[in-house]
Design brief:
transmembrane; Macrolide_Exporter_MacB; cell membrane; 26 helices; membrane; ABC3_permease_C
Amino acid sequence: MYKNYFKTALRNLLKHKIFSLINIIGLAIGISAALVIYLIVSYDFGFNKLQNDDEHIYRVVSNFSYQGQPSYNSGVPVPLGLAVKTEVTGLDVVAPFYGYGYEGKITVDSAKGTPKVIKKQEHIIVTDGSYFDLLNYKWLAGSRAQAFASPNQVVLTAKQASLYFPHLGYANIMGRQVIYEDTLRTTVAGIVEDLKVKSDFAFHDFISLKTADTHKGMLQDYTNPNWGSTSSSNQLLIKVRPDASLDAVKKQLNALYIKYRDKKDQTPGYTHEFGLQPLNDIHFNSRYDAFDGRQANKTVLYSLLGVAAFLLILGCINFINLTTAQSVQRAKEIGVRKTIGGTRKQLIGQFLTETFVLTVIATLLSALIAYYLLQLFGNFIPKDITYSMLFTREVYIFITVLILVITLASGLYPAMVLSSFIPVQVLKGYDVNGKNRGSTLRKTLTVTQFIIAQFFIMATLMVGSQIHYALSKDLGFSKDAILYINTPFKYSGTHKKELLAQKIAAITHVKQTAIGGPAPSASGSWSTHLKYVDGKKEIETEVFIKNGDEHYMNVYKLRLLAGRTLEARDSATKAFVINETYAHVLGFKNPKDAVGKMLDNESKVPIIGVVKDFYQTSLHTPIKPVAIITNRRSNYYNVHVALQPKSGKSWSEAIAQMQSAWKEIFPEEEFSYTFVDESVAKFYKAEQDTSKLLNWATGLSILISCMGLLGLAIHSTNQRVKEIGVRKVLGASVSQIVTLLSADFVKLIIIAFAIALPIAWYAMHQWLQRFAYHTQISWWIFAGAITSTLFIALLSMSMQTVKAALANPVKSLRSE
């Protein structure tokens, strides 16, 4: 019986080639999207599953608030770790660790006897054995007990050990030297297996915490007793006992801060509290950074699932529409089957088998489409996701379930409808009530398809409009034709950096150079609290500091509203140039009134100028009070270069000369540079990725919807052949016939637009609230959506409607 089901199914698919092809392509697109999205979602939701009881592991984080404005930091004060170990109850493990902020060269013993130099190694931490009590590492050499018992010892992961000491066994690696920064000499005291699960804990060098007791460079950083200093480099993990109360643990943590903080540092309106971040939240919560830098967004992941569901629904709608539309053509077949004894159960089995065969073919095709989707979105998806991941047991299970669900979702209703036909009545195409079967359902499903398609179009236009607004908006400073060069942090003082700036300034195609901190708009920030006393009241404000020499403001063309710019004599923070926002916070409506006023920064410092507001970060956050200073005692680490207007290869030649100057001053360091406009564009990477996703989803949804519309147009014109012939004989023109055949579908698209418009408007309004500064929802977004949908729909139908309108009426009227 089942063999006959499959033979009949294949025969029917081949008999109705066009409809079968439309269904297969529509489902294949939806299934391929579902496969790729499944890989992405399962990959990200699979992070940090380190052990069976990882729900009891938390990261202690810092939550700040100043005058109602919250801020967050994934780090804690250095002394908290030791205090928690000795004074907090309810914990099984306390594991402090500290980022070793060095990315220069690492020197290791070579098997050939000559030192081997390795550069650009990140993810190095300083910790003790408690870290390995918490995370599930397997020891391949050495032991937790002895590896951290002494200073100047390091534990490596197996992958890192192979990088440092290729072709050596673990036993031979033990005891060899790894030298960091030319000054920190460590001995390999252990090797652990790399974590087999996906994890944000990407660390591979673990330096013993006892090293900080003897190494001068680490002593200040990792034994700092200051409770008022918080850095994301200082992290604390804890494992809470199952029977302990989280609220009780948090109360003890905050009690420690109140107990040990310096009472002089207390500021009215300022709070600092510790929170507990669950281990599985680290990969998703952008308030607190992840250790390897990359974080996923749950909203985006759920949106991806929604896109996959919508595309699958569109494919299923096509199948239901076209199958029920073909009901009249299959009425005779059903009537004959029932006449010779076929049961309804057997007919349902036959139709579901046809759906199953079609879905399997679509799934095989989707595997090929998925390969190209992965290539297309290589910059959007995590680099660890590869095409080979499709051929795993988990994906096979997912595909099997997906095929069964699609078979039932697409095929069950048409199977129930077709198998319920009463042979005598259905030969005329009407049900027992005398109404044309399935017409209302098909219209409803077609409207649903175009609601989804038009929603995607509107969302795509809105996201693109906001990205254009962000990238083209006047940011208050010049970002074009400017690049900055990160100088090695380990070189103290500014002598070499100033020398590099001077050499670069002498290059023909360079307009001007400056040295200082980050660009005016940058991801990192440095803030402090400044006081202003006007004789009646005291105003204390958190102020973000921008550090640059006397040329910094000129390079970025910061617009001076009052006073003067910084000069060399203003070094060592002897003067402030503030922004408009800060002047207004201090109560000055006219920028000129702020010039000459004094701010308290341990000593009285004058305001010498006010600049027009500029954006310090992305448009997601509002402009905040800023003070620009010149501090030559600070460790300047950027050289900012304004280039002459581009002409031919002028920029590439200038950059090549910059690299030559770099090699003269820093011969052992790698040269790199970043254009400011590119760094600003990175602020909106999430939005740009969303835009790419929406473009893709919009294109696929329109393709699937229009293919379904084409199928219905073919069915409709086939059903109205005689009517078209009669109308042409009576004098109807081709344009009138085309309009007649298209009118019903155009009405459905307009109805879909009327439903999609308020839904899209609300979704776009909510999305725009993520930005402190955003564009408006314009009328052209909705006009563009309906216009483009109608144009594409009419274009897709035209090949069939025009063909029907041009057909010879004699043939159609003679057919009976």
